[in-house]
Amino acid sequence: MKNNTFQFKNIIVGLFSFLLIWEVFHLLLNTHTVPSPLETIFYTLSHIGVLSQHSSASSLRVITAIIISMLIGCPLGILIGMSHRANKLISPFLYFIYPIPKVAFLPVFMLMYGLGNTSKIILMVWIIVFQIILSMRDGIKQIDLIYFKVMDSYLVNRRQKIRYLILPAILPNLFTGLRMSIGIALASLFFAENYATTYGIGYYILSAWTKMNYVEMFSGILTLGFVGILLFKVLDYIETSLTPWQAQRG
C-alpha cells in the first residue's frame, strides 16, 4: 500500500514538474506554436470524448501487439535460454536484427499486409517480440546453476522445471523488457498511424499539426503521454500480482 502511494505521488510530482517546464517554455518562447499547459488541459477536457476514441484505438493496437509478441517471444525465449543448440542457431539472427530500427520495415509490412491495422500491429510485434525473447533468454542465463541442480535432484521433468523455477525467475525480466518496448512501440505507432488511419492518437496529432491547430496538437501529445502512463501502471499491477516477492523486496 505504501509503495502504491509512493508511486502515485511520483506521478503527480512528475506531472506538475512537466507542466511547470512546459509553462516556462511557453512564456520564454512567447509564440502561439507552444500553447500554455492550462489552455491545453482545458481543451483536452472539453474534447475528452474524441480523444478517448483515438487513444482507445491506439491502446487496442498496442495491447494486441503485446499479447501476440508474448505468445511468440516467451516460448522462443525460454527455448533458446534452455537449449544451447537453439541459442547457437537463433542468437546470431537476433544480434543482427535487434539493432536495426524496426520502423524501417513499415513500408515492407504495408506492401505485404496493406495499409490497415494488420501492418501497424505487425510493426509493433516486430519491435516488441525481440525485446521479449532477449529478456527471457538473459533471465534464464542469470539463474544460478545450483537451482537447476536442486531441481534435478528431485527428478523433476522439463515442464515442472519451467513452471516452478524458470518462470518465477524470469518474470521480472519480462516486465522490464515490456516497459522498454512500450515506449518504442508507441513512438513507432505514432508514425504508422499517419497512413490510412481514421482513428489513432498519432493520426490525431499529425492532423492537428497540418491544420496548424497547435492547442489540439499538444492536447494529443498530452493524451499520448497519459496512454503510456496507463499502460505502465497496468504492467505494474500485473507484475505486483504475479511477482509479490519483488514488491516486498522493493
UniProtKB/TrEMBL annotation:
Lineage: superkingdom: Bacteria
Subcellular location, record wording: Cell membrane
Gene3D superfamilies: MetI-like
Residue ranges of every copy of the ABC transmembrane type-1 domain listed in the record: 55-239
GO cellular component: plasma membrane
Bilayer topology annotation: Multi-pass membrane protein
Transmembrane regions listed in the UniProt entry: 12-29, 60-81, 93-115, 121-140, 161-178, 184-206, 218-235
Record's keyword terms, sorted: Cell membrane, Membrane, Transmembrane, Transmembrane helix, Transport
Cited InterPro entries: MetI-like, MetI-like_sf
GO biological process assignments: transmembrane transport
Family under the similarity heading: Belongs to the binding-protein-dependent transport system permease family.
Protein name, per record: ABC transporter permease
Organism ancestry: Bacteria, Bacillati, Bacillota, Clostridia, Lachnospirales
